[in-house]
Amino acid sequence: MTWIDRISLFAPLDFAALALLIAGWLLIGWRIEHSNAKSPSTSQIMAGFRREWMLEMITRNPRIFDAQILSSLRQGTAFFASTSLIALGGTLAVIGNAERLTGVANDLILMDNPTFVWEAKLVVLILFLTNAFLKFAWANRLFGYAAVLMAAVPNDASNPTCIPRANQAGEINVTAARSFNRGLRSVYFALTVVAWLAGPIALMLATVFTLAVIWRREFASRSRTILLSTDT
């Protein structure tokens, strides 16, 4: 069977659902990271607090509190990285038993799809999980860089290198958080891909639901309202 024959196994609706998934993943990420000042995303608001954190750290002595916060952030990235790796290994194991998966899946949706169709869908899932793992691993390393930069920030506010070093630490911290958030979005959409096993309509509905959840958390959540509040 040629690649053209294999591609023909998918209906046009499958390609439309896949295009919606990829477009939604890319566009929601761009919108979150490039939100305007009038309507910032929760991630952008938190980026401002991260920069303020590094400036407040200058006169804090000792800096055990800051070290503990950064340690908890690194633990979070390590946890999600290991979880993504386990999920990736499990998906690869399922592909290794594709024949058994085909029988179960066909019984569930009452269709007779060949093994290649299920394998292709799982490959998409693997791509999202791989991207998530790489983002979490890179975020973990960037938080390590941030720790070194934080240690290099002088406690003396009159030191001319103090503010520049704190700003550098803040930007690396923001970059690490951005990578972590990208990893989380990849996990969200990896879970969305699972709906494709039930058909393209299910994938479309799951994609719309995932986009709605992410949008609400970034632009309409209670936590965002609190972060924007100027009350003291």
Summarize the structure.
This protein has a domain at 40-191. Helices cover 80% and strands 0% of the residues.
Protein model, in words:
With 232 residues, this protein is an all-alpha fold. It has a domain at 40-191. It has 9 helices and no strands. The protein has helices at residues 3-7, 12-33, 42-56, 64-96, 98-109, 115-152, 162-194, 200-219, 222-228. Helix 2 (12-33) packs antiparallel against helix 7, helix 2 (12-33) runs parallel beside helix 8 and helix 4 runs antiparallel to helix 6 (115-152).
Strand content: under 5%
Report mean pLDDT, rounded to a whole number.
Answer: 89
What oligomeric state best describes the polypeptide chains here? single chain
Biggest sheet statistics: none
Q: Enumerate how many helices there are, as a single number.
A: 9
